[in-house]
Amino acid sequence: MLGDWLTQALEPMRRAARRRQTLRELGRLDDRALADIGISRADIGRIADITARQAPDEAMTAADLHRRHP
């Protein structure tokens, strides 16, 4: 019972961390590398938001996310 409550209490922080991680990783790529995986700089924020909402075990690559959520 306490574990479920704690998991729910920590989830917003975990989402924020996943979003920051995605922003950091995609932000490091140059425009050519982003184009190679099918996204543009304008897509980075949207992809970070999608990634943040996913559970860690459902994590997808940026290219997979773009194909699912164009």
Task: Please give a structural write-up.
- With 70 residues, the chain is mostly helical.
- The chain has one domain (2-68).
- The protein contains four helices and no strands.
- It has helices at 2-28, 31-36, 44-53, 62-68.
- The longest helix has 27 residues, at 2-28.
- The protein is elongated, with a radius of gyration of 14 Å.
Summed up:
This protein is 71% helix and 0% strand. The chain has 70 residues and is mainly alpha-helical.
* C-alpha termini separation: 39 Å
Reading the helices and strands in chain order gives HHHH
Category by helix and strand content: mainly alpha
Whole-number radius of gyration? 14 Å
Poorly predicted sequence stretches spanning 5 or more consecutive residues: none
Oligomerization: single chain
* Number of helical regions: 4
Percentage of helical residues? over 70%
Strand content: under 5%
Report the principal-axis shape. Answer: elongated
Number of domains: 1
How many E strands? 0
What composes the largest sheet? none
Average pLDDT over all residues: 82
Features:
single chain; 70 residues; mainly alpha; 4 helices
Q: Layout of helices and strands, plus pairs?
A:
Blueprint: H1 2-28, H2 31-36, H3 44-53, H4 62-68
Helix pairs in contact: 1-3
